[in-house]
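for the writeup, i need someone to sanity check this before i put it in the appendix. the sequnce is what the collaborator sent (i think, or maybe the updated version? ugh). structure was predicted straight from it, no edits. if anything looks off just tell me and ill rerun, i have time this weekend
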Amino acid sequence: MSTMEYYRFFTDLWRFFRRHLQDDQDLEKAAKESMELSRRYGETDFVCRMVVQVVDELERVQKRGGS
């Protein structure tokens, strides 16, 4: 990925996280959207690991009881 592609990926990942952090009731929707995000950026090992970490954090926050 180029520097600009990394920038777009991290920006999209942050927006994904922020959106689902505010709507922590629908992890299934977040999981589906995370797969789309991964595909958009080529499903590389790096992209998939970052997306999984963000989804794991959303789940952890939801179990804890909110943001």
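The longest helix spans residues 3-22. Residues 31 and 55 are 7 Å apart (CA to CA).
thx in advance!!
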